[in-house]
Amino acid sequence: MLTEKAQPPRRNAHAYALARLATDESDERARLRREVEQLKLQLEEARERERRRIAREMHDSTVQDLVAIGLMLRRLQDMVEEPEAQEVLGDARGTLCRTQQDLRTLSYLLHPPILDDEGLVVALRTLVRGLSSRMKLRIDLACEAPGMRTSAEVENAFYRVVQESLINIHKHAAASCAAVHYFREPGLLVLEIEDDGVGMDVDGELAMDSGVGIQGMQARISQLGGTLQLSSAGRGVLVRAEVPVVEADWGFEAHDEYLMPITQWKEGLP
To answer: pTM of the prediction?
Structure first.
């Protein structure tokens, strides 16, 4: 007597439906994550455009209007003879001068034109000089190839990472010195910012979620296909940003300001 061939058990319809639902939900979550990342990118691009617009408006309009007002006050001061009026006009011109400087600084922080015109290395030199003086903090800047240029997106992201990191050091690290290092590795552009401050508890993803500034830096680098890592061994924090690039993306400008060595800037040096 022939025995019937064993048939595999028919899959339970309910289990199949649950598996299909789980797959659909996973696909939907992946799609939503992609949409969120795209929206983040578009938001950051919009923010940068707005920063450029505000900085340009402040520089080309507001600051120039204040310059004109200053000239009018000076002319008026030359026209009056009363000592009290002279003193008031002098105070007004001093206040106006300080306001102009504050607006120029704010405009630069929003979007430094030197970043577009001269590139990342020169922009970092200017940033380090300004922050070191205002923060009373020694900041050393070193660049493997001072003439190196790459895409505007990478240079802008690296500039913001340095800016945010140095501000964080000033606010939270209680550091006496910091160092910025910009260099190449095979297939990568690398930026490192380190300080000798109190350090922080870096535990996996915890550090990346510890502040809006750090999240912003991570988002900028991630959008370029790179990574941002924080590490701390007792004292100090090391911020390391890596962005993948191909050799053709690198350019070298033969300008004197690029070829100058950029190491150990100290207050008082030219």
So the answer is: 0.62
